[in-house]
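A quick aside before the break. I want you to see a complete sequence-to-structure record at least once, exactly as it would be stored in a machine-readable document. Don't worry about memorizing anything.
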Amino acid sequence: MNTLCMYATVRFMPFAETQEFANVGVVVCAPDTGKIKFKLARKRFGRVNQFFEDLDGKLFGSTLQLLEAELNRLKEFAIDKPGKATAALFQELTRHREGVISFGGVSTAVVNNIDDKLIELYEHYVERSFLSEKYRESIIEQNIRQLLKRENVKDFKAQVLETKLSEFKLPFVKKSANSTKVIRPLAFEQKTPLAAYEHAAQWIDRLTRLQHEQIVLPHNMMLAVEKPTDKGFEEAYFEAVNIASQREIIVANANDSPEILSFANNT
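That is the input. The structure line, written in tokens, reads:
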């Protein structure tokens, strides 16, 4: 039997100042039958820690534990109050409010099975949402960090660099008395080729600013780039790599361990 349901994603936003969030769950409501169901990510969801730098590992688990208790309470309450009362309960749950947990916009769908719909939505919004440029770049970063550790290359660490116009964090910065060396992972996994190009161009401009202010010299900066698997993104990739090369930024394949090591070890 088909029934109308409402649903919303659960968003985890630990740093309000950046407004960046990750989808970590889905809540579904079928008002006519008094059902509120939900599916949340595991409390030890490693992707969240990779997605957000400097995140207290305990924050996510404790936050989800509190949310799960609240959702279970609402789930039990709705059983005896089908119809408008359940709909109002769901609307109140998902209304905009400040906090580490928020909800995406409420959408509706006519479904045959609310449980199947919940799984479908979870797989789409939570499992796939991490296959983004930021997640891919975190994987590249993790691989480089493991490479440097394995080869006993020391002194590279995440640091914030300041220019006259802005400041930004780079995952690999090595400072010595006479120079600063940086490595920045770069992926092309955005939703559109234009978005991929703009993301790359932003980081090329930031590195160029470091050059202009002589904070980092061109031969001391590297982009570790992962070539896109989607051919529709190749033009954006080649254009970005070409511009980086014109600005004398070293561009390496993210999987080229010898080149990355050679750069890291070169004094």
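Two observations worth writing down. Residues 133-265 form a domain with the Trna Endonuclease; Chain: A, domain 1 fold (CATH 3.40.1350). The chain has two domains: 3-130, 133-265. We'll return to this after the break.
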